[in-house]
Write a structure and sequence with these properties.
Layout: H1 2-36, H2 38-45, H3 54-86, H4 93-118, H5 123-159
Helix pairs in contact: 1-3, 1-5, 3-4, 4-5
Length: 164
């Protein structure tokens, strides 16, 4: 049982690193998207807005804040998982955060998969986005399963009397 716990802890540490990498990817992807498609993005947001509208600027700032908070949320989960995997911290808080992230993220990935069928342009971008978000989703689910499994095994280990 100890070997299984040690293996799962190593896996939790590695998955936590993956979550941090996806947080960096989230920021990089959005920055590149805003840089490359800046004109398209502004035109899409200008629908029914006056040319000098401050609503557009507030919307862009709000989207940046949401993306930054999402990346921060992922980093919090990733660093907590890494600490848990190394045995430095045994917090249940990050497991709750994973559950919340999955609650919001699963519908997004499902909507991306559904829109992939109807995509007319940018098929490569849609495929890459679906692949990366799907991989991120799998990592989160696997992290949740491993963290819960380690806690169950530790509880069983404490309940079983040690033989001398």
């Amino acid at each position: 049982m100890e070997t299984t716990i040690r293996r799962l802890n190593d896996h939790i540490y590695t998955l936590g690193t993956g979550v941090i990498a996806f947080a960096a990817w989230t920021l990089l992807k959005f920055t590149l998207y805003c840089t490359v498609y800046q004109n398209v993005l502004v035109e899409e947001m200008r629908v029914d807005l006056p040319a000098d509208s401050s609503v557009l600027q507030v919307t862009i700032i709000a989207v940046w804040i949401i993306v930054f908070l999402d990346a921060l949320f992922q980093c919090l989960i990733g660093f907590s998982a890494r600490a848990d995997g190394k045995g430095r911290r045994k917090s249940v808080f990050y497991i709750v955060l994973i559950g919340l992230r999955l609650l919001f993220f699963v519908p997004i990935v499902l909507a991306e998969a559904q829109s992939f069928v109807t995509v007319q342009t940018g098929v490569l971008y849609a495929i890459i986005t679906l692949f990366i978000d799907g991989t991120s989703l799998v990592i989160m689910v696997e992290l949740l399963v491993c963290a819960v499994r380690v806690r169950i095994l530790r509880k069983r280990q404490r309940e079983v009397p040690h033989e001398s």
